[in-house]
Fold:
Amino acid sequence: MILNIVFDLDGTLIDSAPDIHAAANKVLAAEGLGQITFAQSRGYVGHGAAVFIERMRADLGLGEERQAPLLAAFLELYEGAVHLTEPYRGVVAALEALTAKGHRLGVCTNKPIGPTRAVLAHLDLARFFPVVLGGDSMAVRKPDPTPLLAAFEGLGEGMCVYVGDSEVDAETASRAEVPFYLYSPGYRKTPVEELYHTAAFDDFAELPGLLDTLGKG
Structure:
């Protein structure tokens, strides 16, 4: 059975937290403000750039008036923030295996579309994904299921599966009523057993086999 498989990006296919952390601290340094830790920045990821800045401001005690200028400065750096980012181990081999089986692959992320396309191109991952939706591609973003459903629609007819790493992804899949495969080493904070998921995996080498089982169901 041919599957339509849509992936989240940050924390699922790629570990982008080092680049995001560096970009955020560069913005803060330019403004003469305090710095954030790597753990803090990793915890802000998942709801898009604006929420990232909101959470950062809250931790630093910065007012609402700082939101727009900090976000603008962050977005200016974000598209080029690719050099510390790497795919998780086994991702490329898994994507190659899934493509070879004829499955159709897409990306649905809350990361803005510009930085999304930039990092996919930089890591030579864009070739796998005919459909890519970012957090600003539509009027709503995850956990609203609309972008995920749009990504599936773009891939064509077929059984739909979502692969992600976080609470946002689990809620999105649940609301879209599709099977969800949880990459457990990603950026989630909630225990795996408390999240909606069809199966969890900690190594991308496992994913093609897991999806083979689903396709035969």
Q: What stands out?
A: The first helix runs from residue 17 to 30.
